[in-house]
Amino acid sequence: MIDKKMEKELNKQINEELFSAYLYFAMAADFESKNWQGMSNWMKIQAQEEMGHGLKLYNWINERGGKAVFEAIAKPGETWDSALDVFKAAYNHEQHITSCFYDLMRTAREVGDIATEIFLQWFITEQVEEEANASDIVEEIMKVQNSPNGMIMLDKELGSRALTAPIQTTGA
Ligand code: FEO
Questions:
Q1: Distance 153 CA to ligand 1 centre (A)
Q2: Which of 9, 10, 16, 74 would you label with 67, given CA atoms 20 to 30 Å apart?
């Protein structure tokens, strides 16, 4: 049976991941309203990945004899001033998520939940990639933001992103 504190903290993380999906869907909608279809695509894929992360946590809590609990999801922003602002916000958000996983790891250690500690390692590795993806795009935009052609090319490139794995509905 999962430790109650661990269960509560993992449930909080489900909310963080679903908020992340909300945030990225909102960013996708803002891009779409400004006709940046490629960047919108990138954000929609990211939002789906976040739902997958939430489900991964849900499955783990369930597998360990706990229960996933769903709290209200906060309202994300609606509009951003520029593509650069959007991706900078995404990068900052991913840094926040990384710190959440470090806290979860500390809790797993504190309660002696070695299985959850090992489970969390996947997310810690994933966060390295999540941060790098967002910060790479920030850097790309900084290079091309004053060139309409450069921004169009980047939009096209981000439009090619596809969901790499289907959302897993069972197991951890
Ligand atoms: Fe699920 Fe982008 O962290």
A1: 26
A2: 74
Residue 167 above 80 pLDDT? Answer: no
Query: Is residue 166 assigned to a domain?
Result: no
13: buried, middle or exposed (CB in 10 Å: 19+, 13-18, 0-12)?
buried
pLDDT average, residue stretch 138-158: 97
pLDDT of residue 27 exceeding 80, the answer is yes
* In-domain check, residue 123: yes
pLDDT at 172: 62
In ligand 1, which atom is closest to the CA atom of 97? 3
Rounded to an integer, what distance in angstroms lies between the CA atom of residue 14 and that of residue 57? 6
Q: Per this entry, what is the length of the chain? A: 172
pLDDT of residue 152: 98
Domain that holds residue 51: 4-71+79-159
**Whose alpha carbon is nearest atom 1 of ligand 1?**
50
